[in-house]
């Protein structure tokens, strides 16, 4: 796995909607108050806004309309390291249930859960996925897991 490959995937997945969400976040912290993981641990790393930092950094470095200006004046975002991506793997898979409480609490209307999902997609495409999760089992690259009327997740029984 290369860091650049992961960054390229994040940039590839940053369309207009994701970019508008990244630009709209004012870091107010209301999402953190709604997050069950953050509330249980008190760890600032578990705040939803922290879970999409690599995506934010990739966007600011390459797709942000002001990125050329930031580079010109020496204020470009720092590069994401492989160690940071490994740390974020734990954050986005092990401390987020995708319940959407953060999204409901956001006063800016940011769909934070979808940003975490974009992070999961990018991470899965470069192999940064917990071993017990497979693309087939959770439809990671084709959207949210589909739960049918009879309790089936991606064709497998939930019971």
Describe this structure in words.
This protein has helices at 3-12, 16-24, 30-34, 36-41, 48-51, 53-62, 67-72, 82-94, 101-105, 112-125, 135-138, and strands spanning 152-153, 156-157. With 159 residues, it is mainly α. It has a two-stranded antiparallel sheet with strand order 1-2. Helix 1 crosses helix 6 (53-62) and helix 1 packs across helix 10. It is globular, with a radius of gyration of 16 Å.
Span between N and C termini?
35 Å
Nearest-integer average pLDDT: 78
The strands making up the biggest β-sheet line up spatially as: 1-2
Helix count equals 11
Strand residue percentage: under 5%
Give the beta-strand count: 2
How do the helices and strands follow one another from N- to C-terminus?
Answer: HHHHHHHHHHHEE
Structure classification = mainly alpha
| Shape estimate | globular
Q: Profile the largest sheet.
A: 2 strands, antiparallel
Tell me which oligomeric state these chains represent: single chain
Percentage of residues in helical conformation: 40-55%
| Unreliable stretches | 139-159
Radius of gyration: 16 Å
